[in-house]
Amino acid sequence: MKLRTLYTFIIMTLALAFLPIKKANAVPVQSETFNADSLLTVNAIRSIALTDPDQALSLLDLAEERNSFPQFQIDWTRAQIYGGPKRMERMAAKWGKRVLENDSVRNNPQYYFNMCKNLIESMIATRNYEEAMQYARSMIDVIEHSGNSTSNHHNAYWAMARVYRAMGDPSEAYTYMNEAIRFCREQIDVKRKREHPIVSDELKLLLYEQNLADWQQEDGQSADALKTVLSMQEGIERLRPLKGGAFPHKIPDASFLAKEGIVAGELACLYAQEGQAAKGREWFGRLLENPLAGKNPDLVRQEIEYYKHTHEYGKLIGKARRLADPVAYEDSIHEQRKEACLMLADAYRHLGKEGEAIAFYETALLLADSLNRRNNENDALEMATLLETRDKERQIERQAEELKWHRVVTTVVGSTLFFICIIFLLVVRHSRIVGRKNKLMAQQIELYLSYRTKLDTAQLRINQLEEMLAKQTKVNTDSKEEKKEEEKSAAIPSGDINEADRLSFEGLDLKIRNEQLFLDPNFSRDILLQLTPVGKNRISSLLQTFTGENFNGYINSLRLEYSLSLLKKFNHYTIEAIAMDSGFNNVRTYQRLFRDKYGMTPAEYKKSLQAE
């Protein structure tokens, strides 16, 4: 068995023995599109999910097949993708629950706590308030068992407040929101004393107070909302010295300016709503002085709200038209565009322009219908995805049974592979022995070629000396030629060899070598006879005497010697090209003659040269 054939057999056996069963939920990833190995990290997949969530999910399937990172991280990332870019909260909840079943998450309070927060978001979105409440309460239980009285308590209470608000219980919502704010402030005080970073906690406090102010305005408690937003302004002032830099020790300028502008806009609206027009204009001026004014969509909406409270409908229309323009959105069907159309309709109605008001009301209705249809389509798609996922899970269970059989087969094949490996080692050992033999043989060939070169040089020198001797003795050339002819004619064709025969062969051999006549594939005995006065009957005996070979053997030996130089000089040539350039008509004939003379194939000789 050839070595290459054995390699191929071993590779195929390994592939069949250890080929994993393809998982039902795996989506193939095209290697032509991207290098998948470089993308199988949590951060890379999350980045891809922002623009192409389907590709990110496919990469997660591939990561699961390759065990690129822990299973709970894969499921967690799936939950985030479904709950974020995909907007499939039921699927997000499904994978989130699976994350909570993982021991690595259950034994890590922080992991468990963070996953519960994600699940609560999904439960609120799908109006599954009872289950959301269970996870919110479990968050508090986890924190209490951790032994820390303040850290992360505010997150748990904030989650409870949002669940109660969604359930329609504002009293409990306010209670838990105030507790969340209290715990957050306590944590800020503790960290400030220990000189720990407080930026993230201050931003959390701003978020909680923003939620509280929104609820208070929705419930008609504008005075309380004003107090809450003034507290937010105090937080802005605490963050001001930390402006400029990176998290967690600093707050970037753009983030700070956005927060500052929103608070200024809220204060402007609330003061205007409370009848304190002067203060409202003062804070609205601060909003307009913000470098992000007119650029940040949130600040633009604050301007619109202020114009609404001050009944400046002309200015409101100028701002709101930008938000109602479909060009402002990647997707023209957008919730914010619908709200902008409603504000424009209301503003035109107050200005007595009923035609424009009706047009924007109709646009808002069309957008509302489109958004409802899209939500229904997304719900249907999500349900279909859930059903498909369940089918795949059942397929995985069946594949688990197939895997048992696969392991049995793997054991049998593994035993077979063990014996194949032994054979492989023996073949490798034999190959190394042959390689050493070929190397020694190549060295002998090189020695022979060097001797041959020296012999040709010596012969040429002898011929030159004989010519010089002939000139020195001034022997008559014509007489010498006549004498040679007489000797040739007087020679008896009995096979006796004399000095004249030697000289004739040497001259003939020198001409064939120097002019490389042997490289002509059609070089024949008849062409040889045309190069020498030796008769047809004497040429065979001359070749046999001085070379030990017949005509074909003599010519093929010259060709083989020439091929040695080609193999050494042009290692990129193919064997077939070497054979043709050396005068052989057939590469098989060349290989056979080469092996018979040198004990190895041309390819083996070439390999031995490369090994050197």
Flag low-confidence runs. Answer: 16-34, 486-495
Which geometry do the CA atoms define?
elongated
- The gyration radius over C-alpha positions equals 47 Å
Largest sheet: none
The fraction of residues in strands falls at: under 5%
**SSE string, helices as H and strands as E:** HHHHHHHHHHHHHHHHHHHHHHHHHH
Structural class: mainly alpha
**Average residue pLDDT:** 82
Q: CA-to-CA gap between the ends?
A: 27 Å
Number of helices: 26
Q: State the helicity in percent bands.
A: over 70%
Put the structure in a nutshell.
By secondary structure, this protein is mainly α. The chain is built from 26 helices and no strands.
Task: Give the SSE map.
Blueprint: H1 3-18, H2 42-49, H3 53-66, H4 71-83, H5 89-100, H6 103-106, H7 109-125, H8 129-146, H9 153-167, H10 170-193, H11 199-218, H12 222-239, H13 253-273, H14 277-289, H15 297-309, H16 313-324, H17 335-350, H18 354-472, H19 477-490, H20 499-514, H21 525-529, H22 536-547, H23 551-569, H24 575-581, H25 587-598, H26 602-611
Helix pairs in contact: 1-18, 2-3, 2-4, 3-4, 4-5, 4-7, 5-7, 7-8, 7-9, 8-9, 9-10, 10-11, 11-12, 12-13, 13-14, 13-15, 15-16, 16-17, 17-18, 18-26
Describe the 3D structure.
With 612 residues, the protein is an all-alpha fold. The chain is elongated and about 140 Å long. The two termini are 27 Å apart. The relative contact order is 0.04. The protein is built from 26 helices and no strands.
